[in-house]
Amino acid sequence: MPEYDVVANFKVYVEDLTKLPQIKAEIEKLAKVHKFVEEDVGFGIKILRAYLMFKDDSGGMDVVEEKIKLIPGVSETQLDDVSRV
Predict the structure, then answer these.
(1) What is the pTM of this model?
(2) Which residue, 17, 20, 49, 58, could crosslink 37 as a Cys pair with Cβ 3.0–4.6 Å?
(3) Are 14 and 20 in contact (CB under 8 A)?
């Protein structure tokens, strides 16, 4: 059985793009990262998409979402999509 079987796509709204490396490092401490994608949403605003891997039965997505919100430089976090690996 695989160690992780679900990928959750979180939208992370960043207040200061210069803090992006620190924010990524903090997210990596919270969960297994599949990948990060920086996305332009318009008007000079960028979001960070964090694709994080979980066990389906772990129930940790809500906890991780709340912890991401507490990272300095993050203004908002939203669980956008969940899919099986």
Answers:
(1) 0.88
(2) 49
(3) yes
Assign residue 78 the CATH number of its domain: 3.30.70.60
Cβ atoms of 61 and 51 within 8 Å: the answer is no
Q: What is the pLDDT of residues 11-48, one digit of tens each?
A: 999 998 899 999 999 999 999 999 999 999 888 788 99
Is position 80 within any domain? yes
Alpha helices in 1-85 (DSSP H): 20-30, 61-69
34: domain range? 6-84
The answer to whether 58 and 31 are in contact (CB under 8 A) is no
Tokens representing 47 are 């979001």
Q: Note whether residue 48 is domain-resident.
A: yes
